[in-house]
Design brief:
The chain is elongated. It has one domain. About 75% of the residues lie in helices and about 0% in strands. By secondary structure, the chain is mainly alpha-helical. It is built from 9 helices and no strands.
Length: about 290
Amino acid sequence: MDLGGFSSGALTGLREGVEAALIISIICAYLARTGHRGQFPRVFLGAGLAGALSAVLGVALYVTVGSFQAPYEQLFEAGTLLLAAGVVTWMLFWMRRQAASVKSELQAAVDRALNEGSVTALAVLAFVAVLREGIETSLFLVGQAASADQGAPSVVVGAVVGLAVAALLGIGFYQGSRRIHLGTFFRWTGIGLVFIAGGLVAKAAHELIEISVVTVGNQTLFDLSGVLPHEPEGGNVLGQFLHVVFGYTATPEVTTFVAWLAYIVVVLTLFLRPVRRLAQAGAPAPVRSQS
């Protein structure tokens, strides 16, 4: 078992799984409160189909990566890594903006489905809500597995464990028996995912350097192989862990390191800045006191 691959997969599965579990638990809690428990099977059916489709997409992408020959394999892998990093970056900022309104928007969608009386409306609602999370998870895991080399199975095992824990948390959300500050949870797991996505960007840059698509800054910036090697032959567990999870390499090229650092600094700065609350439409303007 590759510890680094397992850890990165578990974090991704937990983070993305909690978002999907939270969506389903909100829908089910609202249905239960409004006396529509009989609609639960349709919600679970939609969520299950979305999860299965996401898994099939992930397997297809991973198999496709390994079927190409050089330099097309490196090009496709670099594209997949950048796509995964881009998707998770978009997801982080979308969730950051929408976290406060997700619950009310879901409840409004449930009301519309119930009012329309469609047999499949709730299944479609759960399917669409979970599919977005599932596709993001698949793309991100494919990127992690591609960059983990022999650690790919451990990434998958870690993701399954993370998703299982997320499912248990979803049950806790629904029952109200387990309290967790979601804002803090998403903030810290988001920071972790920023560093993981930065590693994907660095790996993509390395792949492009290998096939001479990038020809600037190809010289080695520093060499820490004697202190903290990342290769399995080095026998350093910490180095292997950092390599799989955060894209660390003991001998990074200048371009690879610059790409990683630029991504981390820009995205982390934007992610951690305070969220600006927009004034609600139709809210009365504040009354100024008369002097």
